[in-house]
TrEMBL record:
Pathway: Pyrimidine metabolism; UMP biosynthesis via de novo pathway; (S)-dihydroorotate from bicarbonate: step 1/3; Amino-acid biosynthesis; L-arginine biosynthesis; carbamoyl phosphate from bicarbonate: step 1/1. The gene is carA. It catalyses: L-glutamine + H2O = L-glutamate + NH4(+); hydrogencarbonate + L-glutamine + 2 ATP + H2O = carbamoyl phosphate + L-glutamate + 2 ADP + phosphate + 2 H(+). This is Carbamoyl phosphate synthase small chain. GO terms for biological process: 'de novo' pyrimidine nucleobase biosynthetic process; 'de novo' UMP biosynthetic process; glutamine metabolic process; L-arginine biosynthetic process. It comes from the Bacteria. Residues 30-167 form the Carbamoyl-phosphate synthase small subunit N-terminal domain. NCBIfam families: CPSaseIIsmall, PRK12838.1. InterPro entries: Anth_synth/Amidotransfase (IPR050472), CarbamoylP_synth_ssu (IPR006274), CarbamoylP_synth_ssu_N (IPR002474), CarbP_synth_ssu_N_sf (IPR036480), Class_I_gatase-like (IPR029062), CPSase_GATase1 (IPR035686), GATASE (IPR017926). The lineage of its organism: Bacteria, Bacillati, Actinomycetota, Coriobacteriia, Coriobacteriales.
Length: 469
């Protein structure tokens, strides 16, 4: 068993240390502990609600946007570690929440717990209405601060994301181990059904937040009717689709394809969502019935739903991609996009079919090691022949680890990416994907041929100023 910072934890628990801490902006705190499944232990201080929480411990490398991360439904079942050292210094504006927009939806975030190096208890920002620690306490979310998050993240990178428990209730390691062993793991669980809406609702331009008008330009009128599968959809994605001209009807994760097609939509959108995609059979079996009958666009879990509908294999990544600085090569445009991501599973590209040499610059084999950066170096967007839906092109590759980040079905109107274009939080390099979906619904065969640099400024009040600079 590896124990980190045990002496510091003991010192911080002394009466003198507690009195000294209470006189600072931190205020009074209680000892807390994080224990990983492999026995690694980190000691710190509670910085949220008191209690215990078990979940998969993972990490996010974003430098900002902690509240959007905190309220992302895709973190259901997980304890999120923020790698940036100070969290909470600009507080929270509730208008930035990424929680479900469904009528009657819970206001409690879906994640299990939070881990940070240093939590700011006294934020300074004109938009802030509540501090992160107070928000966590209000929503009964356990958090720990004061641990060496660099050591934790290195451990997770070396050994993989794993189950863990964070507690302020007990520091007894045997008791923590017993609770940890009793809790189920992430693989095989369907978390989507816990974060999806219970019924149909609408979302359009009228639902865009007025509080963001200082940055967002007025949205254009809606021109496409889109049905969106809610697998844990972020509010920012709904807003991005609305700003791209989509009038949305949001439906539960397992809505029958027949019910969707009966609405005669211009397109279908498949959202992000938490957990193991193989466990979300209620969605990808419906997607299989939709492909070829209506334009389809998927993001994150939606990308995995399209892949599974095509008969692909999905693998669990060692520690996933979570953060706002993931470099992705667009094989179609030849440009690199800095992207926001949040997923622990990925498509096994070569499981979709055999390479078609005449459409892959003469190459007839998948790279033996599975590293898709081979295609980046070759400057080729390879095409495979899928037994169910014909030709499929690899469009995007992660430059950090060579995994698949996007595909385009060439014989049916559908495409998807593993990352997030809505910039909530994150960069706007991938904003063009919302525009591409609109072009696909317009019938444009070359819908991915978009000036990414110009499109990333679309919808911002400063766009015209920048274009004339």
């Amino acid at each position: 068993m590896r124990v980190n910072n045990a002496s510091a934890a003991a010192e911080s628990a002394t009466p003198l240390a507690q009195r000294m801490l209470a006189s600072t902006s931190k205020g009074e705190s209680v000892p807390a502990v994080l224990m990983l499944e492999d026995g690694t232990v980190f000691y710190g201080r509670g910085s949220g609600a008191k209690g215990s929480a078990v979940g998969e411990v993972c990490f996010n490398t974003s430098l900002e946007g902690y509240f959007e991360v905190l309220t992302d439904p895709s973190y259901a079942g997980q304890i999120i570690t923020m790698t940036y050292p100070q969290i909470g210094n600009y507080g929270i504006d509730l208008d930035d929440a990424q929680l479900s927009c469904a009528p009657g939806a819970s206001s409690r975030p879906a994640l299990r717990g939070m881990v940070v190096r240093d939590m700011c208890h006294t934020p300074s920002n004109w938009r802030s209405s509540v501090s992160v620690p107070d928000y966590l306490k209000q929503h009964n979310i356990v958090a720990i601060e004061g641990i060496d998050t660099r050591a934790l993240v290195r451990h997770l990178r070396d050994n993989g994301s794993q189950k863990g428990i964070v507690s302020t209730e007990t520091l007894d390691l045997d008791e923590l181990r017993a609770q940890l062993d009793e809790a189920p793991g992430l693989v095989g669980q369907n978390f989507v059904e816990s974060v999806s809406c219970n019924g149909t609702y609408g979302f359009g331009v009228a639902n865009l937040p007025a509080a963001h008008s200082f940055a967002d330009a007025p949205a254009p009128a809606s021109r496409h009717r889109v049905v969106a599968y809610d697998c844990g959809i972020k509010r920012g994605i709904l807003e991005g689709l609305a700003r791209a001209g989509c009038d949305l009807t949001v439906v539960p994760w397992d809505t029958p394809a027949e019910d969707v097609l009966a609405q005669n939509p211009d397109g279908v959108f498949l959202s992000n969502g938490p957990g193991d995609p193989d466990a979300v059979e209620g969605t990808y079996t419906q997607v299989k019935k939709l492909l070829g009958k209506v334009p389809v666009f998927g993001i994150c879990l939606g990308h995995q739903m399209i892949s599974l509908a095509c008969g692909a294999q999905i693998e669990k990544l060692k520690f996933g991609h979570r953060g706002g600085n993931q470099p992705v090569m667009n094989l179609v445009s030849g440009r690199v996009e800095i992207t926001a991501q949040n997923h622990g599973f990925g498509l096994v590209w070569d499981s979709l079919g055999e390479i078609v040499p005449e459409l892959s610059d003469g190459y007839d084999q998948h790279p033996a090691d599975g590293d898709l950066r081979f295609w980046v170096r070759a400057g080729v967007a390879p095409v495979v022949r899928n037994e169910q839906f014909g030709l499929i092109r690899l469009t995007h590759v992660n430059l950090n680890d060579g995994t698949a980040e996007g595909i385009q079905l060439l014989d049916v109107p559908a495409f998807c990416v593993q990352y997030h274009p809505e910039a909530a939080p994150g960069p706007t390099d991938a904003h063009y994907l919302f525009t591409a979906f609109a072009h696909l619904m317009d019938g444009d065969q070359d819908y991915l041929n978009i000036d990414i640099a110009a499109d990333r400024l679309a919808g911002w009040n400063f766009a015209e100023e920048v274009s004339h600079a």
